[in-house]
């Protein structure tokens, strides 16, 4: 009689283990833990070849733009890790920021050398007015989405805690939308 509860418990544990193995990757994608950037490419790649009824390869369909889905973090923020000029940094997607805004630390890591006289641009922020240095980023890659020639601004030390991915990047996409805790970007 005592063996039956043990067998029952082992059976439940086995089912839970197999379920975790099968559904673990899906759950990781759902909560945004499948990649370091908390994003997953949902539909990207080369155009597929269509098959005709005779079994011959027909004309290829036009390539669909890459789509990237980003899960919100526990605060509801969309944090991504794009490669800027082949260097990966952490950024907060900010649809209210008109430009990509880099922290002074991230700009230095990207090799952007600025002097005090470069900070000529006056910017209005939630914390007041701050001076920034206008720069141009050769390319910003987020998953399989690539945007070239992105206007950006570098803010002085301490003005920004995390770099922002603003509309100077987002505006060059085919579109983006927020759906129940996920942001969908269309390259």
How would you characterize the overall build of this protein?
- The chain is of the alpha+beta class.
- It folds into two domains: 31 residues; 148 residues, Acid Proteases (Cathepsin D, subunit A, domain 1, Beta Barrel).
- Helix content is 21%, strand content 39%.
- It has three helices and 15 strands.
- Strands 6, 7, 9, 10, 11 and 12 form a six-stranded mixed β-sheet that branches.
- The termini are far apart.
- The relative contact order is 0.17.
- About 14% of the residues have low confidence.
Task: List strands and helices in order, with pairings.
Blueprint: H1 3-31, E1 39-43, E2 49-51, E3 57-60, E4 67-71, E5 79-80, E6 83-84, E7 87-88, E8 91-93, E9 100-102, H2 104-109, E10 121-125, E11 128-142, E12 145-154, E13 163-165, H3 167-170, E14 175-179, E15 182-186
Parallel strand pairs: 8-13, 9-12
Antiparallel strand pairs: 1-4, 2-3, 4-15, 5-8, 6-7, 6-11, 10-11, 11-12, 14-15
């Amino acid at each position: 009689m005592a063996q039956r509860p043990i067998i029952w418990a082992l059976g439940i544990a086995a089912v839970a283990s197999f379920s975790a193995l099968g559904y673990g990757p899906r759950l990781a994608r759902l909560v945004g833990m499948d990649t370091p950037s908390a994003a997953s490419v949902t539909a990207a790649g080369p155009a597929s070849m269509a098959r005709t009824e005779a079994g011959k390869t027909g004309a290829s369909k036009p390539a669909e733009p890459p789509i990237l889905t980003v899960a919100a973090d526990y605060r509801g923020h969309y944090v991504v890790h794009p490669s800027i000029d082949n260097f990966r940094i952490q950024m907060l997607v900010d649809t209210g920021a008109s430009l990509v805004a880099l922290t002074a630390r991230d700009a230095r890591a990207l090799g952007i050398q600025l002097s005090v006289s470069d900070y000529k641009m006056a910017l209005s922020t939630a914390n007041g007015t701050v001076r920034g240095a206008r720069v141009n980023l050769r390319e910003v890659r987020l998953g399989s989405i690539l945007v070239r020639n992105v206007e950006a601004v570098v803010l002085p030390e301490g003005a920004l805690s995390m770099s922002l991915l603003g509309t100077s990047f987002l505006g060059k996409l085919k579109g983006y939308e927020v759906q129940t805790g996920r942001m969908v970007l269309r390259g």
